[in-house]
Each structure stands twice: as structure tokens, then as C-alpha cells.
Amino acid sequence: MTESSYRIQGATGEWEVVIGLEVHAQVTSNAKLFSGAATAFGAEPNTQVSLVDAAMPGMLPVPNMECIRQAVRTGMAIDAEINRWSRFDRKNYFYADLPQGYQISQLYHPLVGEGAIEISPDDKNPDATKTIGVERIHVEQDAGKLMHDQHPTRSYVDLNRSGVALMEIVSRPDMRSPAEAGAYLRKLRAILRYVGSCDGNMEEGSMRADVNVSVRKPGDDLGTRTETKNVNSVRFVMAAIEYEAKRQVELIEDGGRVVQETRLFNVESGTTRSMRSKEDAHDYRYFPDPDLLPLELDEAFLAACRASLPELPDAKRKRYEALGISAYQADVLTAEVEAARWFDALLEAGAKPVAAANWTTSELFGALNRGGHDIAQSPVSPAQAAELLALVADGTLSGSLAKQVFEVMLETGDAPAKIVEDRGLKQTSDTGAIEAVIAEVIAKNPNQLAQYRGGKETLFGFFVGQTMKAMGGKANPAVVNDLLKKALS
Q: What is the DSSP letter of 384?
């Protein structure tokens, strides 16, 4: 996909869309950024709040180095610059869910500098890639949560989320279509999940995106952008961009002007609405947090972070392709870390790469989708799957028999060899038995035999099907084909 492939067609011609994303990813840790309070999702309101989180007088923050480690590892995963010296700042503003009256963040000296993420916007052509720049990753604490639906006239505050560590991952405005933004967000989520620095659960709010959109005529300077806050799914991000870009084009062509503002996305109507105006000059009165020393990272810490990184999606996909797996299948297998781990275990159990990829992406994924399960809930283990594929490879099972065995495996969890033995599903290559059945099939179908010998060779498949049916699908297809050719000629 090229930058020029997506355009908004307006009354005055084509318009280009410019997109940047600010992704807030909750850091995977058992404790908050500056306190020992728990971070588990779904707890009763205000049950995971320390005195630091509640901003009690005299309480001092202490950095949780696991949160710092996870942010550094994330930066390394996107080949970003890691700043050995960084600093926390206070971002001052009043809101009811911010008990301190300020948020501890990193404006001037972030932990992670510039990096890049390579995306494949076209699902059908994963080799067509584009690089999206990442401007920075900084660490900050989350605010609490206002609950407006608990009382008819009052809003309540839940501080469970207050102080939870976030990584704010800020992209360059390098995306030019909803598809590119969707691909970027999916790829970033995959990297975070591979690294283990964020669970990527957008429904629970542990990953959400602020979507910056502007429009311009191709080649013009950047237009005025709007920011749509806290969008919590890839699909909604793409829909918000689509709507907001068209809205801006219509506004400009009707003689209006786009104002820089914060907007909200309505998931039911697929529209955005104004939340508040947002000018370039914020009066947040940033200043260095006097309670926190600068972070200084030594080489030993960075080396340990680097050594802890797993094989990442791009490297894994290239390794799969080198094994003969198609680019499309490699892309599917590496999209989710659980699927990639399951497939790696299948290969380690001795399965042949190409056959394993074909079976996993068709049979296994198909069955899991029908059952509404993800691969972590698969009733079939990698070792069992490898055993099934081995029975096909050595001729014990035909493709159709393997499907039958797999269905039983899904129902019972039994091993393939046990199912084959208990149910008598072993494929036969007994030429005598197959020849006898072929003779019966030919005798019962004299008209088809005459037509075949008269030149209608497509009827060969009919005879194969009848023979396999008569033998309950247990005949070796290769042997059936050879014997039928001799018998029919």
C-alpha cells in the first residue's frame, strides 16, 4: 500500500489524511509505579489504594523498577534509543480523579527516544511494508476513574487505577489511512504482548489510543489536527479516523475551519463529538518532580533488559518463511503470541513445518473459531497434534481419516493413536482388498464405465469417490488411484 492509495474525495478534489497515535499501555507489574498497591483488574472500587495513591500528606513516591524495566524492554523491541538519564516531571491540573492535583509524567526527558515499527497494511500482501516512526515512550502514572452511573445526582471516584504505571507510546504522523493505523496498532499490540510489558487487553482499558487526525490537499502543509481520546479497539480507531477525516473535509469545503480540540468517539453511532478545545500552549506548569531523583541506568541493567527479550514477531515470521511456510501463513501464525508459542511447541514436537502450518491455520484455527475459543483453550496439545500429523505422514491415516480423528480429539482429548486403535480408523493399503472393492464398484456402474472408456475422463473422480465410500474412507488414496487406473483401462 502506498501513501497515495487512500484519499477522501471531496467536492474540491482529493484530500490526504494524516494520522498519528498516542497509545497508553498499562505496564505489566504487580504493583503501581510509585507505590506497592496492587494493579489487578476488576477489584472492588477503592480496595487497591495506598496512602501514596490517595495523596495523603507527607507520602513520598518510590519508583517501581519493574515498570522501568518493562518500558526499557519495549523500547529495545522497536529499536528505539534508550536514554540512560531521564527525569520525572509534574503535570499540574485539577480533576476530581487526580487526588495529587498533578500527574507524574516525563515531558522533557523521556525514558525512551526515537524508534520505528514496520507494518504490513495489506493483509493479502504481507511483504508490502511501511515504517512508522515512534517519537518517544515515556512512563507516567494513571489517574483514577469517575463513575457517573452510581447515583442520580453525584459522581463517585474509584482510585484503584490511580498511580498505575502507563507507557505513552507516541508515533510520528506517518500514517495515511485507517488501514495503516489499524496495522500499526495491531503490530504494536503484538510487540507488547511478545515482550510481556503489557497484556494489550483493550476491552479492559489496559491499552487505549488517542487518535490525532488532520486533512490536507496532497503536497500541502499539515492541517489543523483533532485528538479523539481513549479509543479502545482497533476497529473503533479505524472508524474514528474514517469519520473524523470526512467530517473535516466537509467542514473545510463548506467554508468552515478545523479547530484544534479534544473529541470523543461514540461507538454506537460511529461518530465523534467535541469534548473540549485544545490550544497549542497548555498551562500545565510542568516542572521537575522534587520528590524524585533522575533515573540513571547503568550498562548492566540495560544488558539484562536486552538479554531478556524474546524472539519478536518479525524475526519469528522470517524464521517461519525460511522453513518453507508461506508469507501469509507466517503472518497469521505470528499475529498473536499465544499462537506462535503453540506452533513453536508443535515444531519442537517433531512436526514438519509446511504440513504443520497448513494444518494449524486451517484445521485447528477453524475448529477453535467454530467453538469460540482461543488457542490457549485448545483441547489439543502441540504434542498430540504432532502425533496426528505423524500418522498422516507415515500413511497410517488419510486426510479424511485424520479429520475424523481430529474431531474425536476435540471431543475427548484422547491421543490420536488411541483413537485410531479404539475405533479402527487405520488406513489400509491392502491391494487385494482394494482391488476387490474396485471390481464391485465397476460392476455396479457400467454406464459410467462406458462413458469413461469413451473419453469422459472426468469420471475418474467418480470411481475414486465410490471406492473410498465403499471402504469407509480407510483406503490409501494413492493406492486407490493406481489400482483404478489399471482396472479402468
A: H
> Domains of the chain, with CATH numbers?
13-304 (no CATH), 311-423 (no CATH), 431-488 (1.10.10.410)
- The terminus-to-terminus CA distance of the chain in angstroms comes to 53
Q: pLDDT category, 136, cuts 50, 70, 90? A: very high
Burial 319-356 (b: 16+ CB within 10 A, else e): bbbeeebeeebbbbbbbbbebbbbbbebbebebbbeeb
Q: CA 162, CA 32: separation in Å to the nearest integer?
A: 8
Q: Cell 541493567 belongs to which residue?
A: 301
Rounded Cα gap, residues 458 and 201, in angstroms: 53
**Amino acid found at 54:** A
Write the DSSP symbol of residue 41: T
Would you say 467 and 438 are in contact if contact means Cβ atoms under 8 Å apart?
yes
Phi, psi of 310 (to 5 degrees): -85, 180
pTM: 0.87
Q: Which long-range contacts (CB under 8 A, 24 or more apart) does 46-50 make?
A: 46/157, 46/158, 46/159, 46/160, 47/160, 48/160, 49/159, 49/160, 49/162, 50/163
Q: What is the pLDDT of residues 78-99, one digit of tens each?
A: 999 999 999 999 999 998 999 9
Q: Please write the tens of the pLDDT for every residue from 155-187.
A: 999 999 999 999 999 999 999 999 999 999 999
CA 110 to centroid of chain Cα atoms? 26
In whole angstroms, give the CA distance from residue 152 to residue 463.
75
Strands of the 287-288 sheet, one edge to the other: 102-105, 89-92, 287-288
Residues with Cβ < 8 Å from 413, sequence gap 6 or more? 379, 380
> Which distant-in-sequence residues (6+ apart) come within 8 Å of 431 by Cβ?
479, 483
Question: Is residue 191 scored above 80 in pLDDT?
Answer: yes
Quote the CA–CA distance of 392 and 399 in Å, as a whole number: 7
Q: Do the Cβ atoms of 236 and 267 come closer than 8 Å?
A: yes
Name the residue among 192, 198, 244, 199 with its Cα closest to residue 19: 244
Strands 261-266 and 226-231: parallel
pLDDT, residue 279, reads 54
CA angle (150 as vertex; 149, 154 as ends), nearest 5: 90
| C-alpha cell recorded at residue 50 | 495506598
Name the CA radius of gyration of the chain, rounded.
30
Give the Cα separation of 193 and 334 in Å (integer): 11
* 252-269 exposure pattern, b = at least 16 Cβ within 10 A, e = fewer: beeeeebeebebebeeee
Q: What is the largest CA-CA distance in the chain?
A: 99
Q: How far is the C-alpha of 426 from the C-alpha of 420, rounded, in Å? A: 6
Rounded Cα distance between 388 and 406, Å, is: 8
